[in-house]
Design brief:
The chain has 8 helices and no strands. It has about 160 residues and is mostly helical. The chain has a domain of about 60 residues. The radius of gyration is 34 Å and the shape is elongated. It starts with 14 loop residues before the first helix and ends with a helix.
């Protein structure tokens, strides 16, 4: 029977070899991510030019003091109504049917484009209004507005 192994000698990598391997790994990573690194440098440069880098650095270093100041400012009575309304706004947004709203806003935008393109130098007579009701697009729009008003008025 063989003797049990009692001593394990780990293979030691010389410091110079470890540094060369690390440099090769970093060089490869820089080469593979060149575009991201350049964009990051451009982003940091822009932040620095605008003074935002110093502000962000100070905010991170002094986060406790900054959060204390922010919370003290938000606790002022002039901001309480705004903070209450923000929560109500998020609840309201959750209740909106976005698909129907998008359909309605698309039609509203199209109508606004048409109105802006219209030459408003002409006057509209009562007869023009009556004739306009025969136009299917105008009739459809007026009917939609009446249904909207009817729905708003229901209890």
């Amino acid at each position: 029977m063989a003797n049990p192994i009692t001593k394990i000698k780990r293979m030691e990598i010389p410091e110079e070899v470890a540094q060369e391997q690390n440099m090769a790994e970093v060089t490869k990573a820089v080469s593979e991510n060149k575009d991201a690194i350049l964009k990051g440098i451009d982003f940091l440069s822009t932040l620095n030019e605008n003074g935002m880098l110093d502000m962000t650095h100070a905010l991170v270093k002094q986060k406790e003091t900054a959060l204390d100041n922010i919370m003290r400012e938000l606790n002022k009575p002039q901001y309480s109504a705004t903070l209450e309304n923000i929560s109500k706004l998020f609840l309201f947004l959750g209740e909106l049917n976005v698909d129907e709203l998008k359909h309605f806003t698309d039609k509203l935008n199209h109508g606004m484009e048409e109105a802006l393109a219209f030459d408003n130098s002409e006057k509209t007579s009562y007869m023009d209004l009556i004739k306009a009701l025969k136009d299917p697009e105008i009739n459809r729009s007026i009917t939609m507005l009446l249904e909207f008003l009817r729905g708003m008025g229901k209890k």
